[in-house]
């Protein structure tokens, strides 16, 4: 697959929709989401809690209880193959080998009764057999910067600190040299100095292994440091996608603008002067039209009824916002007989 | 100073032998900190630095192993009866986990009412007074929130209820332990704005405990940085961020991700983990991770060095470091 700028896309998510049946009715945590991850690239998927960013990752890996959750529509093309169509045994060959995943809380994802070496070796053995698995595990533990990997491999998770455990989980993920690493809030549970170590490690592994990274996080700072491309989700839908430089400096969707104005930087003296009103809607009963309209400072009548498509907002930058449709803005203007709402500001307020 | 801790220590026993604890975990070691009227003092540090324990000692929730807590100049350890009651009304907590700090079986009116009862408001007035407090913290119309249970509120709303409960006794100081850490970005900004407004309107003082340096820089007047149970640097917020005199402070600032991809900078990456407080390193406790450690740091505990502008740091080289930052700022 080839993208717009001639980069080979490794992962293409096309109109992905996932449903979950709950006791209170069906919800759609991932609703018509499309984006791509180029080979060797780093894409950040950002959003607040309940935005559907983690469910998007689980949908790619098909890691959810099939009794209640299912992909209702869309395709997940990985190296040209649609993962949604694969059987479970075929999918098992992809997981860990081609696409690996790292989660927020390393303690939960490590087995407390096995040594970390055994667990990393197992990840290798799943695909290549136990022959030489231990040596591979020790090598992987070394490449994630654990001191004395031969000895560390014989330790149990409880003997390691939080940062070391996250390194062990990353070793487990990269031992098969996957083409794509999905990292779901990999540093959220860690202290800031340890977070810096892990982000540094992920950047280094990316360069060494030529591995693409899909980084899922709520922390805009982490995305700004790690990713070339950023996709923003809100209430199950993608609202904006584009090169990180552009999205951060001239956000096109009012939600992205609000998020960025709430994000404060440690590098500047900055008083917080405003905040977005309200909070993320309940997915069991999402607002009609654009899901952000109840909180949007630029809301127009169209926004309350019609779902905005992804519209061009800049070079390779698209946003699901009617403000970027000239016809709609003109129509609103003529219907109201007054000036159209202010277009979203370009550039960040200082 | 309204609330002040002098040379606080808080040790916890660890392990057991026939003759008492095998060792002591020195969670707080020789910490002195004070909050003035209408002022925000931030206590920052990583997990295990002792910032929460310091907050709990200042709240009177835990007795200090050594040292004293003073409220308006009077020791709370020696306070009895009326004094103790006045202290507890005047110094109120707000915690990180808004769910855990609310009773799931009590309505908002009940929770806020407990504080009102302590403040001597007659039960007949409770509903009206609780309603006024809810409106003050932005839960409007109050009538629709009074009879809700915590599970019927969002995280941001729950934290507003916690703040209303704290305000019920008309406190002078609020000790807020990571009050916005569990909140989403947009809600976090709302709560920070609320705290700033309440401070203006009520002349509240805050002891703001946080690991997030960006938040601290945007709301605190003074900041104290803790590492392994000790304060390693303390001063006016802007001065500490412009001239971090302790290498740990500089590394913390540098490690905090900046939400702007145009910022390309050399990040200082500290090696290793925070050592166990059971066996703190010799000399300067930070030396095994310090990128600028010298021989003296391994053997000698550093003195408190005054770098001017009411800014101190516990580092052998604090004066030289602060001087270097001043020169860098001057040459710009």
Structure summary:
With about 350 residues, chain A is an alpha/beta fold.
How is this structure best described in words?
The complex is a heterodimer of chains A (350) and B (332). Chain A has 350 residues and is of the alpha/beta class. Chain A is built from 13 helices and twelve strands. Chain A has helices at residues 53-61, 88-94, 106-109, 116-128, 133-143, 149-152, 162-174, 192-209, 220-226, 244-249, 254-262, 301-305, 326-336; strands at residues 9-22, 25-38, 42-46, 69-78, 81-82, 99-102, 180-184, 212-217, 229-234, 237-243, 311-314, 317-319. In chain A, strands 6-7-8-3-9-10-12-11 form an eight-stranded mixed beta sheet, sandwiched between helices. The longest helix of chain A is centred in the middle third of the chain and has 18 residues, at 192-209. The radius of gyration of chain A is 22 Å and the shape is globular. Chain A starts with 8 loop residues before the first strand and ends in a 14-residue tail after the last helix. Chain B is 35% helix and 22% strand. Chain B contains twelve helices and twelve strands. In chain B, strands 6-7-8-3-9-10-12-11 form an eight-stranded mixed beta sheet, with helices on both faces. A four-stranded antiparallel beta sheet of chain B has the order 2-1-4-5. Chain B is an alpha/beta fold and 332 residues long. The model of chain B has no long low-confidence stretch (mean pLDDT 92). Chain B has helices at residues 51-58, 82-90, 108-118, 126-136, 143-146, 155-167, 185-202, 213-219, 237-242, 247-255, 295-299, 318-331, and strands at 3-14, 23-35, 40-44, 66-71, 74-75, 91-94, 173-177, 205-210, 222-227, 230-236, 304-306, 312-314.
């Amino acid at each position: 697959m080839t993208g717009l700028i001639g980069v080979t896309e490794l992962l293409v998510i096309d109109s992905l929709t996932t449903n979950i049946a709950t006791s209170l009715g069906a919800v759609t945590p991932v609703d018509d989401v499309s984006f791509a991850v180029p080979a060797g690239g780093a894409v950040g998927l950002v959003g607040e809690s309940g935005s559907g960013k983690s469910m998007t990752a689980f949908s790619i890996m098909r890691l959810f209880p099939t009794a209640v959750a299912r992909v209702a529509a869309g395709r997940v093309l990985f190296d040209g193959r649609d993962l949604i169509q694969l059987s479970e045994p075929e999918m098992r060959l992809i997981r860990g080998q081609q696409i690996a995943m790292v989660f927020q809380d390393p303690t939960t994802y490590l087995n407390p009764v096995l040594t970390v070496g055994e667990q990393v070796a197992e990840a290798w053995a799943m695909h290549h057999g136990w022959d030489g698995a231990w040596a591979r595990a020790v090598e992987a533990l070394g490449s994630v910067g654990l001191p004395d990997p031969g000895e560390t491999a014989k330790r149990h998770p409880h003997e390691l600190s939080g940062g070391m455990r996250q390194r062990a989980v990353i070793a487990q993920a990269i031992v098969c040299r996957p083409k794509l690493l999905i990292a779901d809030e990999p540093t959220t549970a860690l202290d800031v100095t340890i977070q810096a170590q892990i982000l540094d490690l992920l950047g280094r592994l990316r360069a060494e292994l030529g591995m693409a990274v899909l980084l899922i996080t709520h922390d805009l700072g982490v995305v700004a440091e790690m990713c070339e491309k950023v996709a923003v989700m809100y209430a199950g839908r993608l609202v904006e996608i584009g090169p990180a430089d552009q999205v951060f400096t001239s956000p096109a969707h009012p939600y992205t603008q609000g998020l960025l104005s709430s994000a404060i930087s440690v590098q500047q003296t900055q008083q917080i002067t405003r905040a977005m009103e309200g909070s993320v809607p309940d997915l069991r009963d999402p607002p009609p039209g654009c899901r952000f309209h109840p909180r949007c400072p630029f809301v127009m009548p169209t926004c309350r009824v019609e779902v905005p498509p992804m519209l061009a907002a800049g070079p390779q930058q698209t946003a699901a916002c009617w403000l970027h449709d000239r016809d709609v803005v003109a129509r609103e203007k003529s219907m109201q007989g007054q000036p159209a709402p202010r277009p979203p500001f370009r550039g960040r307020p200082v | 100073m309204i609330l002040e801790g002098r040379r606080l220590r808080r040790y916890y026993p660890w392990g057991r032998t026939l003759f008492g604890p095998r060792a002591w975990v020195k969670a707080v070691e020789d910490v002195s900190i004070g909050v003035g009227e209408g002022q925000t003092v931030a206590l920052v540090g990583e997990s295990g630095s002792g910032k929460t324990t310091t907050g709990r000692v200042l709240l009177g929730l835990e007795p200090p192993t050594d040292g004293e807590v003073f409220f308006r100049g009077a020791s709370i350890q020696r306070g009895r009866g009326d004094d103790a009651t006045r202290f507890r009304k005047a110094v109120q907590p707000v915690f990180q986990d808004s769910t855990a700090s609310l009773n799931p079986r009590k309505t908002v009116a009940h929770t806020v009412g407990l504080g009102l009862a302590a403040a001597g408001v007659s039960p007949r007035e409770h509903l009206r007074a609780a309603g006024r407090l809810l409106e003050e913290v932005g839960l409007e119309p109050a009538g629709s929130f009074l009879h809700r249970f915590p599970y019927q509120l969002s995280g941001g709303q729950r934290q507003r209820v916690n703040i209303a409960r704290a305000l019920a006794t008309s406190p002078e100081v609020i000790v807020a332990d990571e009050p916005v850490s569990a909140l989403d970005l947009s809600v976090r900004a709302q709560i920070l704005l609320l705290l700033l407004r309440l401070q203006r309107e009520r002349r509240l003082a805050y002891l703001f405990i946080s690991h997030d340096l960006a938040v601290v820089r945007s709301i605190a007047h003074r900041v104290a940085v803790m590492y392994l149970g000790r304060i390693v640097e303390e001063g006016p917020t802007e001065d500490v961020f412009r001239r971090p005199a302790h290498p740990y402070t500089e590394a913390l600032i540098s490690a905090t991700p900046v939400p702007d991809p145009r910022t390309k900078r050399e990040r200082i990456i500290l090696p290793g983990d925070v050592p166990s407080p059971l066996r703190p390193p010799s000399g300067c406790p930070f030396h095994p991770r310090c990128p600028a450690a010298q021989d003296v740091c391994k053997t000698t505990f550093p003195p408190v060095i005054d770098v001017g502008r009411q800014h101190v740091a516990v580092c052998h080289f604090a004066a030289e470091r602060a001087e270097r930052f001043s020169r860098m700022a001057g040459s710009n």
